[in-house]
Hints:
Blueprint: H1 3-6, H2 9-16, E1 20-26, E2 34-36, H3 39-48, E3 53-61, E4 69-76, H4 80-101, E5 118-120, E6 130-134, H5 137-140, H6 166-169, E7 173-176, E8 183-186, E9 190-197, E10 203-216, E11 221-225, E12 237-242, E13 246-248, E14 252-257, E15 262-265, H7 270-280, E16 286-287, E17 296-298, E18 308-314, E19 323-329, E20 335-339, E21 345-357, E22 371-372, H8 380-390, E23 398-402
Parallel strand pairs: 16-18
Antiparallel strand pairs: 1-2, 1-3, 3-4, 5-8, 6-7, 8-10, 9-10, 10-18, 11-12, 13-17, 14-15, 14-19, 19-21, 20-21, 21-22, 21-23
Amino acid sequence: MCGLASGEGFFxxxxxxxxxLFFGASLGPDxxxxxxxxxxxxxxxxxxxxxxxxxxxxxxxxxQPGRFVHFAGHFPVKRWALALLCGWALCASSAVTSAQExxxxxxxARKLAAGVMTIVAPDQDAEDTALGPFDLDFVAKHPExxxxxxxxxxxxxxxxxxxxxxxxxxxxxxxxxPVWGVEFAFKPARLxxxxxxxxxxxxxxxxxxxxxxxxxxxxxxxxxxxxxxSDSEAVPSEPxxxxxxxxxxxxxxxxxxxxxxxxxxxxxxxxxxEAIEAKERVPGRLLDHVAIARQELKLSRTEQDNAVWGVxxxxxxxxxxxxxxxDVRGLTNAYQMAVASGGEKRYLRKTLRIYFWRxxxxxxxxxxRVFLGPPAFExxxxxxxxxxxxxxxxxxxxxxxxx
Length: 403
């Protein structure tokens, strides 16, 4: 006999691969099934209903029991039923092995045609390697550092230049740092109906908005070129091109809608990730924004592609949304420092903003198609209306901003 009759390992093998294997039995096609999740439970069902006419079924699903029935029969359950089911289960186990190797529950990954993915190249700008000049406020807040009378009648050191004092050197400071970036490729946003867990611990069918993407580190980063870092008056030359063995992509995805006043960060929805993975069948496992942050993005070369695939998901998005954007942060370490009118400084991170529009309504939302970028119409008034929804001056599919 196989693992069904000899022990629990068969079921655990499926669970370890992120799948659920269930055997169920009922006295008719409609009544609620008694489900066996272990070999012991299966043997109990066989003994309990031995000799009776039963509907017997097997379910293999990615974390959602009852969604896909791969086998069902109508026959008297006897002891030999275990052997019959073992033969089917061995065939199913080979399918699970394929599902582990390839996304899509045993279906081979799709070969994406040219143009399916929108590729955004890294945007390393030489200006991002330098910030300033700024005055260091935390130094100016200490007046006791001033060279003042009566100890210093001329308000400067007796045997040194005023330019060498801490107060003077804290003015007009320029900060320099290396800048790296990663390539970001994405498919247009889509919608899917998935059973997801609620706060009450029960499954509920919801519409999930998602975007599938791929990140790849290609090098070509920028580093400040300063011959002597200790020389405060040294004039740096043009930043040099550098590359690292790997970088870390720690993303933050935010869905924005001006018309509905929405700003939602991506959620972790593992059942949705599994369903999307089976639907999209991209050439790699899909990771959520937390799991992908644990991955090192190794340098991709011509002979070796180290791309990593991911997906960002949202639920409870207002179904009336027609125009929305998705902000992607973490693609680069570039940032700017903005000074408010009151002197307060804010750090603005370089962010990729992608624009979408969805012609639809709140009925059967998951069937609506989402398009990249503002729509193009011949009527200038209609075009301007759509541009106003994105605060754009011209039609753009995406752009780099600081926020």
